[in-house]
Amino acid sequence: MITANRRLAQLPVRAWQQQWRDAVTDPLELLRLLGLEHRSAELLASRDTGFALRVPRGYVARMRAGDAADPLLLQVLPRPAELVNAPGYAFDAVGDMAASAAPGVLQKYNGRALLIATGSCAVNCRYCFRRHFPYGEQTAAANRWQGAVAAIAADTSISEVLLSGGDPLSLSNAKLAELGQALTAIPHVQRLRIHTRLPVVLPERVDAGLVQWLAQLPLQKVVVIHANHANELDASVDTAHAQLREAGCTLLNQSVLLRGVNDNEDALALLSERLLASGVLPYYLHQLDKVQGAAHFEVDDAQALTLMQALRARLPGYLVPRLVRETAGEKSKTPV
Ligand SMILES: *Cc1c(COP(=O)(O)O)cnc(C)c1O
Fold first, then answer.
1. 26-54, pLDDT tens digit by residue?
2. Would you call 12 helix, strand, or coil by DSSP?
3. CA dist., res. 321 & res. 106, Å (int)
4. Whose CA is nearest to atom 13 of ligand 1?
5. Rounded distance, CA 153 to CA 71, Å?
6. Residues 279-327: pLDDT tens digits?
7. What structural domains and CATH numbers belong to the chain?
8. Which atom of ligand 1 sits closest to the CA of residue 283?
9. How much distance in Å is there from the Cα of 241 to the middle of ligand 1?
């Protein structure tokens, strides 16, 4: 029998997994939590979008009650517009399938190998460009990372390993440590870069075990968080960032330019300033990947360029992200 004391002792270790499982997955419940249930017929997709709602409760708590246009809500709510079949919007928007070097390994750019570490994520962002990705056949963590590690070891041009997904921090600390150990043994690998939205949507994930692992990992470490709006950052997120920095990670942010969420000068400027206050520098502002179901988020290039001009005039240079788009077949992200 587990005593009350032992249960308490286990609490911090279990906290993020518990919150992960406890995510809101019912669109009506989400609207009810925000006092918007009376508008469900207008706000919700009338049938299955093929990509379920999933959002941790801590992130819901940062939404404004009663506001159907809340920038955090719009990122996660399955809306009627997703069901519109938009010409030019594909299932594999960025040519991932053509770039697979080994199961779960994408090598599109010089010197960098990207691992689709896992298909799991704590949040389903409606504009996710891998919302249709066949994760079943394609994750690098399968088989104790063997295929991925062999492909990286065999290619001495690879100095940086990027973890993507899904969200790589949805893996356990033990699973990440397995990879860290294997990468440390490959002399040409110098850097580990982790692309993750978990410090923002489930900051409890940055737990003692993760911080300890990162702190002792003998590689350069870069963590690229994904925040799109200043309201996504609160004190719990600041704490997660501080711990990552203390563990020796360089923190950068990448955002997606999203209509209705952050497609105005104030939203983008406030995001950059809020990120800096949290110890994170802006890196990329992405033009949307044209994935089926996300067309209603599109901001055209002319408006995007006007926004960038306004940001350059308003902010110090280091707070202006680079506006880029991912073009299938190109050797880097392409400046817009
Ligand atoms: C975006 C991306 C990278 C990283 O590109 P950076 O410009 O270095 O951020 C690497 N590999 C793949 C497959 C990518 O899509």
1. 999 999 999 999 999 999 999 999 999 99
2. helix
3. 25
4. 108
5. 42
6. 999 999 999 999 999 999 999 999 999 999 999 999 999 999 999 999 8
7. 3-83 (no CATH), 97-335 (3.20.20.70)
8. 9
9. 22
